[in-house]
Amino acid sequence: MAILKTSAHQHLFFTLLIGSVISLSAQTPPAREYQIKAGFLFNFTQFIEWPASAFVSTETPIVIGVLGEDPFNAYLDEIVSGETVNGHPLVVQRFKTISEVNTCHILFINITETAKLEEIVTSLKGRNILTVSDAANFMQQGGMIRFVTVNKKIQFQINPEATKEADLSISSKVLRLAEIVVPKKK
After folding, report:
1. Buried-most residue among 5, 29, 63, 184 (CB within 10 A)?
2. Helical axes 6-18 vs 30-47, angle rounded to 10°
């Protein structure tokens, strides 16, 4: 897989998002699906603003975390390798449990059990962590971005209420291309 540099990634992100979908063929193996999702995670780093307090210094890395089993293989590591966003190098960290998540800016949660998802999202409340998943109940649990597949195309939903609670700002360019979801109060 060729790795594109930042400006090419930005161009690719907007090219793909203008149609707000990425096509998947009927025979697409899961690795291809997660390769595309890894590209989205990388690009989210460029269109999310974290408060200054989310970084110890101007050189503090932006951490993209994966909680649970890692579905990305090496794709996510390859995409972020050598990249920076606003002077912050990008790094990938993997976590087996939520208690291991200390410094993290984007957390892909690969857990599908509803009770566990709710516990994880609740434990992250008040932290400046963009939560992302493809679990079915993720948005109802208070998640921020959910990948969905519609007609063999990967799209994403955003819960702007949850991102505001975490003091995160998402670019209007991304918001225009997402399905906005406001979960019903429990």
Report:
1. 63
2. 110
The DSSP code for 103 is S
Q: How many whole angstroms separate alpha carbon 176 and alpha carbon 56?
A: 31
pTM recorded for the entire structure: 0.85
26, 52, 77, 83, 128 from 30: Cα distances, Å:
11, 36, 17, 25, 30
- Residue 155 φ/ψ, nearest 5 degrees: -130, 175
159: left (phi over 0), alpha (psi -120 to 50) or beta: beta
pLDDT tens track for 29-66: 458 899 999 999 999 999 999 999 999 998 999 999 99
Distance CA 140, CA 117 (A): 10
Query: Are 183 and 139 within 8 A, CB to CB?
Result: yes
